[in-house]
C-alpha cells in the first residue's frame, strides 16, 4: 500500500471522536502551543470555523481522495459551508498558480509550481481560520518531521463510522472539544494537603478553612469570577473579604455586579475579557447548557484563553460536559480544574462550602487561598470528571432525602399526627442534622425562599439517573424522587427552595 506524507499546507479531513470528519488544512502551530507528548499528530485549522487543534495522524485523511465519500455521509448546513470555503480557497490558489505560470512563460523561464507554497501564501484569504495570536505562515516556516501512515485510497488504513449529522448551533466548536489533553503535572503538592490513596483515585483533603478567623493569605494571582447567582455571590463576597483581587461578570450585570464593585471588585464586560485579564477564572452557572454557552458562545471563555490561563468550573454538571470543557480549554494551552461545591446559599455566604475538585492538580494548589476563603474543606479526586460524578451522587442522595422528609411530614398530617412532634422526635434521633431541622421548620412556616433552587436539585437528580444508566447501575430511589420534583415543577415551584417539593404531596 502507498505511504501518505502530510506536510504544512496539505488539505485534510480531520476526524475527532463522535463528530463527523471536517475539512481542514495542516498549518504551523503558534510558538507558545506545545505538541502533545507521545502523540503523532498535526496542527490543523478547520474551514468555516475559528477552530484549530492537534489531530492524531490516524484521524487524518487527504482531502481530495475522500471528498465524495465525506459529502455523501455529512449533510449539515455548516458542513456544506465549510466544503464551499475549501472550494473557494482552491479556486483562488489555482488562479495564483496560473498567474505565476503566465509570468514565468513571459520571461522565458521554467516555473516550478508547488501547491504547498501557494496554499501557504493564500492564508490571508481565510480570515475565519486565523487566530489573532498566530503569525502568518511563510516559506521560512519549518516543516514538521515527515509522518507516514498506510493508505491506498478511500477507507484504507482505518475506518470511520460516520452517520448523517444534523445542523448543530455548537458544531463550530466541536473540534476543539475533542482535542488531546496535555499530560498532567506531577509536581509535589503543598505540605498542608493530606493524600489518601483510594484504588486508582487520589483523594487529597485540604486543611479546614481559616476564613472565620481571617488568617488566609490571599494569592497574588488575579481572580476572575463568572456567574453571581445564589452560590456565586457568596463565594465572591468571601474572596473579596479575604483580600483577593477579583474581576466579576454576570449575564445580567446591573444588580449583582454593582454590589461587588462597591466592595472592591472590578467589572469585566464579557467572559472573554475576564479570562484575558485574570490568571485564574472561576465560573458557577446553572446547568450544562449554560456552562457550555459560557465557554463556547460569542465573546466566551474560549476567546480569552491563552497558554497558562487557568479555568475552574464550579457548576454542577455531567461528566461528559466536564470532559468537553476540559479538552477545549487545554487545546488552547489553558489549564483546567473542575471544582463543584456542596452546600447552599447560606453556607456559601458563611464560607463553609465543601469543594470537590478534579483535573489539573497544580491549578488546585494555586487555588488554595481561594478554596479556604469559600469553603471549610476541599477534596482533590484525580482526573477531570471524577468531581462531577461525586457531586451528582451527593446531590442525588440529598434530593432523595429531602423528598422523603417531605413525604414523612405530609403522611404525619394525613394520619392525624403532629408535624411539629414528628420533627422534634426526628431531631432527637440519629438522623438529626441542621439540614433536617432548617428545612422542616421552613416547611412548617411556609417559607420556601430559595437556599438551593428546586429546579437545580431536579436537574442534578436527572443527571445522576442518566449517569447510572451509562454505568448500567439502577437508581430507583432517585428515579422516584425525580418524579416528585417534576410534579413540584409543574406546580410552579422551580424557583423556590428544594424543600418546596413538599407542595407536590399536598396538591
What does this structure look like?
With 507 residues, the protein is an alpha/beta fold. Helix content is 39%, strand content 15%. It contains 17 helices and 18 strands. Helix 13 crosses helix 15 and helix 13 packs across helix 17. The radius of gyration is 27 Å and the shape is elongated. The relative contact order is 0.09.
Features:
507 residues; 11-stranded mixed beta sheet; 5-stranded antiparallel beta sheet; elongated
Structure at a glance:
The protein has 507 residues and is an alpha/beta fold.
Strand content: 15-25%
Spans with pLDDT under 50 lasting ≥5 residues?
110-213
Radius of gyration: 27 Å
Helix content: 25-40%
Number of strands: 18
- By secondary-structure content and strand pairing, the structural class works out as alpha/beta
Shape: elongated
How many DSSP helices? 17
Biggest beta sheet attributes: 11 strands, mixed
Task: Draw up the topology in text.
Elements: E1 3-6, E2 11-14, E3 22-26, E4 41-46, E5 52-56, E6 60-62, H1 67-73, H2 77-106, H3 115-121, E7 147-150, E8 194-198, E9 201-205, E10 223-226, H4 230-241, E11 246-249, H5 253-262, E12 266-267, H6 271-277, E13 280-283, H7 288-296, H8 301-304, E14 310-313, H9 319-331, E15 335-338, E16 341-342, H10 345-350, E17 353-359, H11 361-366, H12 368-374, E18 375-380, H13 386-414, H14 419-426, H15 434-445, H16 454-470, H17 476-490
Parallel strand pairs: 10-11, 10-13, 11-12, 13-14, 14-15, 17-18
Antiparallel strand pairs: 1-7, 2-3, 2-6, 3-4, 4-5, 8-9, 9-18, 15-17, 16-17
Helix pairs in contact: 13-15, 13-16, 13-17, 14-15, 16-17
Amino acid at each position: 500500500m502507498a505511504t501518505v506524507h502530510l506536510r504544512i499546507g496539505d488539505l485534510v479531513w480531520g476526524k475527532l471522536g463522535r463528530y463527523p470528519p471536517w475539512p481542514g488544512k495542516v498549518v504551523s502551530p503558534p510558538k507558545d502551543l506545545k505538541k502533545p507528548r507521545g502523540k503523532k499528530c498535526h496542527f490543523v485549522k478547520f474551514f468555516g470555523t475559528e477552530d484549530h487543534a492537534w489531530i492524531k495522524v490516524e484521524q487524518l485523511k487527504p482531502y481530495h481522495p475522500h471528498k465524495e465519500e465525506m459529502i455523501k455521509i455529512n449533510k449539515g448546513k455548516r458542513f456544506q459551508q465549510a466544503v464551499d470555503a475549501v472550494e473557494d480557497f482552491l479556486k483562488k490558489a489555482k488562479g495564483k498558480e496560473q498567474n505565476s505560470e503566465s509570468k514565468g512563460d513571459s520571461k522565458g523561464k521554467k516555473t516550478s509550481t508547488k501547491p504547498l507554497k501557494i496554499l501557504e501564501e493564500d492564508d490571508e484569504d481565510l480570515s475565519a481560520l486565523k487566530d489573532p495570536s498566530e503569525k502568518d505562515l511563510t516559506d521560512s516556516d519549518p516543516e514538521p518531521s515527515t509522518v507516514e501512515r498506510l493508505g491506498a485510497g478511500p477507507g484504507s488504513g482505518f475506518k470511520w463510522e460516520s452517520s448523517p449529522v444534523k445542523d448543530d448551533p455548537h458544531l463550530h466548536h466541536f473540534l476543539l472539544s475533542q482535542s488531546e489533553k496535555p499530560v498532567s503535572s506531577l509536581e509535589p503538592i503543598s505540605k498542608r494537603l493530606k493524600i489518601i490513596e483510594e484504588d486508582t483515585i487520589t483523594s487529597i483533603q485540604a486543611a479546614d478553612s481559616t476564613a472565620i478567623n481571617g488568617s488566609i493569605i490571599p494569592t497574588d494571582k488575579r481572580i476572575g469570577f463568572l456567574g453571581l447567582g445564589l452560590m456565586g455571590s457568596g463565594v465572591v463576597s468571601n474572596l473579596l473579604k479575604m483580600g483577593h483581587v477579583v474581576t466579576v461578570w454576570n449575564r445580567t450585570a446591573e444588580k449583582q455586579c454593582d454590589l461587588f464593585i462597591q466592595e472592591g471588585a472590578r467589572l469585566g464586560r464579557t467572559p472573554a475579557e475576564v479570562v484575558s485579564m485574570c490568571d485564574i477564572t472561576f465560573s458557577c452557572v446553572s446547568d450544562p447548557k449554560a456552562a457550555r454557552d459560557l465557554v463556547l458562545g460569542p465573546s466566551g471563555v474560549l476567546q480569552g484563553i491563552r497558554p497558562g490561563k487557568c479555568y475552574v468550573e464550579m457548576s454542577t454538571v455531567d461528566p461528559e460536559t466536564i470532559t468537553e470543557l476540559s479538552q477545549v480549554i487545554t487545546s488552547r494551552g489553558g489549564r483546567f480544574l473542575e471544582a463543584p461545591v456542596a452546600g447552599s446559599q447560606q453556607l456559601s455566604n458563611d464560607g463553609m462550602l465543601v469543594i470537590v475538585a478534579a483535573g489539573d492538580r497544580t491549578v488546585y494548589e494555586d487555588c488554595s487561598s481561594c478554596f479556604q476563603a469559600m469553603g471549610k474543606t476541599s477534596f482533590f479526586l484525580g482526573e477531570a470528571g471524577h468531581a462531577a460524578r461525586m457531586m451528582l451522587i451527593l446531590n442525588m442522595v440529598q434530593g432523595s432525602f429531602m423528598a422523603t422528609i417531605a413525604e414523612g411530614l405530609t403522611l404525619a398530617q394525613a394520619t392525624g399526627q403532629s408535624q411539629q412532634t414528628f420533627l422534634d422526635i426526628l431531631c432527637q434521633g440519629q438522623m438529626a442534622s441542621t439540614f433536617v431541622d432548617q428545612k422542616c421548620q421552613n416547611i412548617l412556616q411556609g417559607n420556601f425562599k430559595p437556599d438551593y433552587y428546586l429546579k437545580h436539585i431536579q436537574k442534578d437528580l436527572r443527571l445522576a439517573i442518566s449517569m447510572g444508566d451509562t454505568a448500567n447501575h439502577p437508581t430507583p430511589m432517585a428515579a422516584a424522587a425525580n418524579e416528585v420534583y417534576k410534579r413540584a415543577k409543574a406546580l410552579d415551584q422551580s424557583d423556590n427552595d428544594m424543600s418546596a417539593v413538599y407542595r407536590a404531596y399536598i396538591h
